[in-house]
Every structure is written in C-alpha cells, then in structure tokens.
Design brief:
There is one protein chain. By secondary structure, this protein is mainly beta. It contains 3 helices and 27 strands. The protein has helices at residues 2-25, 171-175, 256-259, and strands at residues 31-35, 38-42, 59-63, 71-72, 85-87, 95-96, 109-111, 119-120, 133-135, 143-144, 158-160, 182-184, 206-208, 241-243, 249-250, 270-272, 292-299, 302-306, 310-313, 315-320, 324-328, 341-343, 349-352, 360-368, 371-382, 423-426, 434-437. Strands 1-2-3-5-7-9-11-12-13-14 form a 10-stranded mixed beta sheet, with no helix packed on it. The protein has a 4-stranded mixed beta sheet with strand order 18-25-24-21, with no helix packed on it. Strand 24 (360-368) and strand 25 (371-382) form a beta hairpin. The model is unreliable at 8-24 and 396-414 (pLDDT under 50). This is Leucine-rich repeat and fibronectin type-III domain-containing protein 2 isoform X2. Residues 388-399 have a biased composition (Polar residues). It holds the Pfam family Ig_3. Residues 388-420 are annotated as: Disordered. It comes from Betta splendens.
Length: 464
C-alpha cells in the first residue's frame, strides 16, 4: 500500500516537473505546441517590441507576426538550427543587423512583409542557403544590394517584392534563381530589365510586372510560354502567367515581338508614341510598331583648340528609340572614357588635346535599331612652343602663335643677346614641383599663363 502510494506521488511530481519545464521554455504571452516531435512557438499580435530572448532554440516554427518589433539582431535567432518557418509579418521592422539569420541554414520560409524596411544590405540575408520562400512585399524598400540574394538565389522558389519603391534589382542574382516558380515585382518603380534576365528560369510559372515604369520588355524565349495556345510539354517548363498592365509601354518596333505572341483579354495599353497613346496594345496592328532611324540635329562643325586645352565636341540626335552616340578619332579608333576623354549621355565628347593624333576629323555616329547617321567635326590644334631639355631654347610651334611666350624683345640696331631662361623648375617630388617664371618689361603684355606637365610613366607624351 505504501509503495503504491509513493509511486503515484513520484509519478505526479514527474508530470508536474515536466509541465513546469515546458512552461519555462515557452516565452510569456506565447503559445508553444509540440506537434509530431517538432516545437512551434506562436506569438502573434501580443504587442511585443522585440524578439523574446527565451524562445526555445529547438523551435521549428516561429510566428511573431502582428507585433511592434523594431529591429532584428544577431542574438534573436542564434543557434536556432532547426527553424524551418519564420514569420515576422506586420511589424515595424526597419533594420536587420547583418548575419542575423546566419544560423538558419534549415529555414525554408521567411515572411518579412508589411514592415518598414528601406533596403536590404549585402549580409542581411546571409546564411539562408536553403530558403525557398522569401516574402518582402509592402515595405518601403528603395534599394537591394547586389549581393543581398547571393546565398539564397539557387534554392529560392517564390520571391515577392511587390509594393515597394524599387528602381532596380540585383539582376545578376535573379538570373541565378533557376528554381524560381513565382516572381512578384508589381507596384514598384522598375524602369529597365536587362536582356537575358529570365533566360535560365525554365521553371518560372508566374511573373507579375504590373504597375511599374517599364516602357519595354527585353525579348526572351521564356515569354513564348506566356501564349494562350502554349501546351506545357514538361512540368519543368510550365505555362507562364505574365502580367504587364499599368506600365507606360512604348509601342515601337522593339515591342513587336511581344505583340506577335498569342494572348487574349490582357489589359496592356500603349503610352507612346503619341500616335498610339491610349490604344489597347493587342489591338495595334503589327505594321504600326515602327522605329525611326537617327537624325543628327546639332553638332560641332569645326574647332580650333590650343594645345593642352579641353575641347567639347557636341553631337545631338533624334530617333526612335533614342540613338546611342559613338565617336571615332582621326586615326579610326572608337573612343571611350579614359584619363583624357569623356563621353556624356547627351552625346558630347570631351577630350584634352595633347598629341598630333588629335588633329583631324572626328566622326560622330548616332545609331539605333533602325539605322545610323554620321557627322564630321574638324579639329585644328594651335601648338605651344616648349622649352627644349637642358638648353633653355624654345622650340618653335608648327602653327602660328603670338609671341607672348618670348623672353625678350629685340629692337633694330641692338645686338642680339642670348635669351634668358624664362621658366625654371626645382624641388620636384612625386606630387609637386616649384615652377618659377619672370615677365620683364620688354615682353609683350601677358594674356594668359598655361602650365603643362607630363608623367614619366606615360607611354606616349601626354601633356596635362
């Protein structure tokens, strides 16, 4: 009798002890569930200002939605190596400390929607190598770092970035999301998508680009699966649901490929050119999708440049699409941005005139998909006399120039004298030099000083 009573008491104490341990492991205001040998910690809409520090580290599912959490830190989810599903929706999160998710290699789903995130940094999502669902819609994001998706790109299946302020995306990372099924980019400020972005996304079944600032869409084989007549041949190449409405589509020849797809009951309209503005995209005839070849409207015809000065050569052109401006040097080289040349978006070429190769005809080429147009600019150089090394004697310019650089004036009847050295250089270092020159009363009135130097490492003589 005594033994039976003691066994019963001990059994009750063990049960109470286990219950007490469970109660201590579950944070205040949260509910903890042990289902199928996995622990779920549920803390939705409890008025939490931060992630509870006493969450069981073996939690598999953690729901913290509908609270007032302000930031995510590295300590919040440290050592939660079994976590599979994390919900942080509908909080006020505005900052994620880098590497906060570093221990969550088993995480499959992360919900960060309806928060106040303004950007994603390079290491904010670091460590999520098996993440399949990333939901970050309805935030205030204006920027995503190029490396933000580096770890999660290969495994990701569902990415929702809708209702943000994104002007661009890390498109190189998007190209690597080869397992992506759904991509929601609607209601952003995207104005450009690089060609080839979707080429390898063979499993993509839904692409939402609604209400952005896209004027055109790059042609890609993946869009052939967006046709109504498309019959899926394999589960790895499903029919694509493509949404484009609400974009200011520019209906020229660059969008003809899209018009040729067999699609019905879509809401896309043309925003330009003026002749097609407001018309239903799929009702515009193919022959109306036209482009205009370039026409150069303004350009520099000729220019006389003092050696060492910078010349700005103008070239403006119209066309549809807007032409790209290229410049060819007198020795038939395609010019780009270098230490002495700069190409601007308005077509202007800025070049520092330093060598004899800069003398002659520069060619401006305006090109687009409809053709090209050219114009010539004649550049003449006024060369300066240079002091010969070690002699102090000025070498004569090849073109005529005033004698403002002369050292003395020689009058009739006076004997010729050895010209004095007009410029001396001393105390030369790698970053500075002491330059002295004199102007005597016999010299003409000085209109301008110009200092020129060249680097000893230059392969050719370039004066700066």
């Amino acid at each position: 009798m005594y033994d039976s009573t003691m066994d019963h008491i001990i059994c009750c104490l063990l049960v109470l002890g286990a219950t007490a341990m469970m109660a201590r492991a579950c944070p205040k205001y949260c509910a903890c569930q042990n289902l199928s040998e996995s622990l779920g910690t549920l803390c939705p809409s409890k008025g939490l200002l931060f992630v509870p520090p006493d969450i069981d580290r073996s939690t598999v599912e953690l729901r913290l939605g509908g609270n007032f959490i302000l930031r995510i830190t590295q300590q919040d989810f440290a050592n939660m190596t079994d976590l599979v599903d994390l919900t942080l929706s509908r909080n006020t999160i505005g900052y994620i400390q880098p590497f906060s998710f570093g221990d969550l290699e088993t995480l499959r789903s992360l919900h960060l929607d309806n928060n106040r995130l303004t950007e994603l940094g390079p290491d904010d999502l670091r460590g999520l190598i098996n993440l399949q669902h990333l939901i970050v819609n309805n935030n205030q994001m204006g920027r995503i770092h190029d490396k933000a998706f580096e770890d999660l790109a290969p495994a990701l299946e569902d990415l929702d970035l809708s209702y943000n302020n994104l002007v661009s995306l890390p498109w190189d990372s998007v190209r690597q999301m080869v397992n992506l099924h759904q991509l929601s980019l609607d209601h952003n400020l995207l104005g450009f998508i690089p060609e080839g972005t979707f080429t390898d996304l063979e499993r993509l079944a839904r692409l939402d680009l609604t209400s952005n600032r896209l004027q055109k869409l790059p042609p890609d084989p993946v869009f052939a699966r967006a046709q109504d007549s498309m019959v899926p041949t394999t589960p790895f190449a499903p029919q694509l649901s493509l949404s484009l409405g609400g974009n200011p589509l520019h209906c020229n020849c660059e969008m003809l490929w899209l018009r040729r797809l067999e699609r019905d009951d879509e809401l896309e309209t043309c925003a330009s050119p003026p002749a097609l503005k407001g018309r239903y995209f799929w009702n515009v005839k193919e022959e109306e999708f036209i482009c205009q070849p370039p026409l150069i409207t303004q350009h520099t015809h000729r220019m006389l440049v003092l050696e060492g000065q910078t010349a700005s050569l103008r070239c403006e052109a119209t066309g549809d699409p807007l032409p790209t401006i290229h410049w060819i040097s007198p020795d038939d080289r395609l010019l780009g941005n270098t230490s002495r040349t700069a190409l601007y978006s308005n077509g202007t070429l800025s070049i520092t005139i330093t060598t004899s190769k800069d003398y002659g005809t520069f060619t401006c080429i305006a090109a687009n998909v409809a053709g090209e147009s050219t114009a010539s600019v004649e550049v003449s150089i006024v060369q300066l006399p240079h002091i010969s090394n070690g002699t102090g004697q000025p070498s004569q310019p090849k073109s005529r120039l005033s004698d403002i650089t002369g050292a003395t004036r020689v009058n009739k009847g006076t004997p010729k004298t050895q010209p004095e050295k007009t410029v001396t250089v001393s105390e030369v270092t790698s970053v500075s030099a002491w330059v002295r020159w004199t102007v005597n009363k016999a010299a003409p009135k000085v209109k301008m000083y110009q200092l020129q130097y060249n680097c000893s490492d230059d392969e050719v003589l370039i004066y700066r």
